[in-house]
């Protein structure tokens, strides 16, 4: 294997994968490192928009984003043109024309689609016709007779009947599909997708390594008291019962399910509770990305203010620093228990043997991946539905009462989960 093209719905503007949602980076780094480790010396090109420093460090070539999608009126027309060229090539073995994307595909021995949880209807939240265009790009690579893989995804849902037939054709054309959980395959099978080449493994994020020495940060954030019981609490816009997930300002009443949960925890268990953001924002300064607080931070600060008004905040603190993914995971590793509304915040906890309650999405579009991830680790009974009355409290109580037992379970289970995550890459050799 000499050349690989990494593409897919994670083709986003520069900074989004590295400096935005922290969970994206948990996946990105192990994904690229393991592809390179699987095929030593391979030239890896990607439509993912990565910084020069990342590309230099990981030995990756970042291609222009418009090869895949550019948020322009011409995106669909270009993709359809490429589909026509590929169809003719498939029948005649003659390439009548080229585009930059077709050239990148032809230069590759394998094309890997990494789309996470947006290979499906949810892709259209990113841009117009986004799922259709991405599916066409996959089909183009297949018709150009390249080995194609959809790696470590959570495909679906598929409710648009206009695209469903084509999506099934594309899906059946992959030489290999690996999913990060098993629920996706069950849902695909229900809709009559061909899952004969689909394998269920685990998310590469379980392989992400945290920073080792953060003693000064622990002292700064008040996390260095080893005698207290520490509970981490992560909340995001997806957890609320009403959307949109990126609503700039919410009414205090919207926080009621989480306020009631924390009041219950404080009243009955009295741990020190640390509210933290699991997303960052960034500014571009002279071509460098400077981290700043992301959209989760105002949410946890508003929650903190509500708790102070209700006089519940005696042992509640917000982590106010802005931290990179390595440090964020290391901070999470200092909690005795975690409640997380971000799925990869949960991964950061579970992979460090921390009993974790996972908060599900509270509004559409729902994501089956959360229950799927929990099942992979064996903690499905600790996924809490914020819409169901008292479910947050009930799941917390169950997790708290079993936290020592859960810790023992995770010590056995996480090494297996990491092996499952590695299986995504070892299977690439077989095709």
Q: Would you summarize the structure shown here?
A:
The protein is built from 16 helices and 15 strands. The chain has helices at residues 16-19, 22-38, 52-58, 75-92, 100-106, 130-143, 161-173, 183-190, 215-220, 256-268, 296-309, 325-332, 343-350, 369-377, 391-401, 403-426, and strands spanning 3-7, 43-46, 60-62, 110-113, 147-153, 176-179, 198-200, 230-234, 272-276, 280-285, 288-293, 316-318, 337-340, 356-359, 383-384.
List the helices and strands and how they pair.
Blueprint lengths: L2 E5 L8 H4 L2 H17 L4 E4 L5 H7 L1 E3 L12 H18 L7 H7 L3 E4 L16 H14 L3 E7 L7 H13 L2 E4 L3 H8 L7 E3 L14 H6 L9 E5 L21 H13 L3 E5 L3 E6 L2 E6 L2 H14 L6 E3 L6 H8 L4 E4 L2 H8 L5 E4 L9 H9 L5 E2 L6 H11 L1 H24 L5
Parallel strand pairs: 1-2, 1-4, 2-3, 4-5, 5-6, 6-7, 8-9, 8-13, 9-12, 13-14, 14-15
Antiparallel strand pairs: 10-11
Characterization of this structure:
- It is a single chain.
- This protein is of the alpha/beta class and 431 residues long.
- The chain is built from 16 helices and 15 strands.
- It has helices at 16-19, 22-38, 52-58, 75-92, 100-106, 130-143, 161-173, 183-190, 215-220, 256-268, 296-309, 325-332, 343-350, 369-377, 391-401, 403-426; strands at 3-7, 43-46, 60-62, 110-113, 147-153, 176-179, 198-200, 230-234, 272-276, 280-285, 288-293, 316-318, 337-340, 356-359, 383-384.
- Strands 3-2-1-4-5-6-7 form a seven-stranded parallel beta sheet, sandwiched between helices. The chain has a six-stranded parallel beta sheet with strand order 12-9-8-13-14-15, sandwiched between helices.
- Helix 10 (256-268) links the parallel strand 8 and strand 9 (272-276).
- Helix 6 runs parallel beside helix 7.
